[in-house]
Prior knowledge:
The complex is a heterodimer.
Chain A: E1 6-8, E2 11-13, E3 17-19, E4 41-43, E5 60-63, E6 66-69, H1 78-90, E7 95-100, H2 105-116, E8 122-126, H3 137-140, H4 143-156, E9 161-165, H5 172-181, E10 186-189, E11 193-196, E12 198-199, E13 204-205, E14 211-215, H6 220-233, E15 238-241, H7 247-256, E16 258-263, H8 265-269, H9 273-287
Parallel strand pairs in A: 3-4, 3-16, 4-7, 7-8, 8-9, 9-10, 10-15, 15-16
Antiparallel strand pairs in A: 1-2, 5-6, 6-14, 11-14, 12-13
Chain B: E1 3-16, E2 19-25, H1 27-30, E3 38-41, E4 50-58, E5 63-69, H2 73-79, E6 86-93, E7 106-111, H3 119-125, E8 129-135, H4 144-149, E9 153-158, E10 165-166, H5 170-179, E11 184-188, H6 191-203, E12 208-211, E13 227-232, E14 235-240, E15 247-249
Parallel strand pairs in B: 7-8, 7-11, 8-9, 9-10, 11-12
Antiparallel strand pairs in B: 1-2, 1-6, 2-5, 3-4, 3-6, 4-5, 12-15, 13-14
Amino acid sequence: MADLRVNIAGVEFKNPVIAASGTYGFGECYTDLYPLSKLGGISCKGSTIEPKDGNPPSRIAETPSGILNSIGLQNPGIKAFINYYLPTLLKSDTAVIANVAGATLDDYAKACELLDQTDVHMIELNISCPNVKQGGAAWGISCDGAAAVTRAVRKATKKPLMVKLTPNVTDISEIAKAVEAEGADCVSVINTLLGMKIDINTRRPILHNNVGGLSGPAVFPVALRMVWQVARAVKIPVVGMGGISKAEDAIEMFLAGASALQMGTAIFTDPYSPLKVIDGIEEFMDNNGIRNISEMVGQVKPW
Amino acid sequence: MYFCDKYRIVEKKAIASDIYSYIIKCPEVAGIVQSGQFVNISASGHTLRRPISVCDFDRENGLIRIVFEIRGEGTREISRLREGDYIDMIAPLGRGFSFLDDAKHVALIGGGIGVPPLLSIAKHYGEKAQAVLGFKSFDKVILANDFAEYGADVTICTDDGSSGFKGNVLPCFENVLNNEKLDIIYVCGPLPMIRAISEIAEQKAIPCQVSLEERMGCGVGACIACVCKVKRRDKEMFVRVCKDGPVFNSKEVIF
């Protein structure tokens, strides 16, 4: 029998599939179908120190094998997350990751100080949101920026820290090394790729923000390549994400170097897809005599 | 409460140009669905599901009816399903219309593919309902007989005058307004139409419920993609069309 448990930065996940931030709310939206306890973990909707309205609609567009989104981090603020959503989440028998975004270093540090006082299991730093004018990916696109946020937050909390990296850079492994050097416990790779879609009749971009983040199966090969590059560059665990929709994708991610996974867009297509991926991973492991996920991690044999 | 499963299409009909009616056997959904709620349908080969409003339902026989128009590749894919095929849907979703217990006269104002969600309201109110339904042209007219069979007084308008009155629904609606003391108005259709009816409702202080549309992601409230702006407790905010709507009180919507 395969053991699906993984340990990332001291946090135990009962299986390696985590719902990705921004696609699963605060865990309350899919419980009609199955309990949160089926998932390895949930990365909650990105929260900022103050509530945020987000971008005007339209905020989403379908593209070949994927979607573009520009939500703009609409959220009720970190205090609402802590007081209203977190207590229920912590009773749901799954690993709970708070996702934190901000415009300034101070925003990030303050939000993480507040989370440090809670029982949340892990903090994911969003330094890669392509849809907000201030902060967001502005921090994540340079080694100095990424390092500065990680440093500021590292002082504010002892919680396990995952830094979510943007693919919209020249060399993602350099950014990964920069956050590792400042004390990040793990990295999640990748956030969305910046894209665009235009309505040819109105000549208007579909997204009111003009551009937005591309996700879904279309980005999977890019995500896989970046996970591979980052995993070879750093010693901390890599959580792979970007277009995973089936168990085969998950196995590829492990082989490329991911120790755990996040799934997002696939849930919109099929809300049961995370459970199908978990079952498929187990089946693959059983069929191939693999006992632990770690036996697959980074085991690709490059030419 | 909602479900996500594959359900059998027991009847498929082409009811107008590029417009289809499906009757779907789904007892668990039919048992709890409310007027104005929607279903989110998987379209083969597409990442996002397509939200389609529930047109009618039959709790006793476990059936729901949807009516949709081919608008793009996704809805075209859904239109290729045949009688006897299974349709993959998440349902029922959203907040639907609410009914007034003591209403004597209600108006149902629909435009184009905004007409179907109003049918189950007509069923509820029977002869108390006056339906003003607008379409582009005669080949797009749908459900007129269905509204009449439920007892509603039906007025048809078309942009080109090829069926019923020529022009949009507004003159006919104002006619209804002048003849009856309306207790409530229900609207679904293009945004300019919804906006115009809402303004009149506000001036005349008649309650008005509107069903809105927006590009949707998950359909269950998780992704916050499909928002509209409302004013609540003196504060403007974006709320989710899929979860907080699609039906809203017109007074709170900022168009």
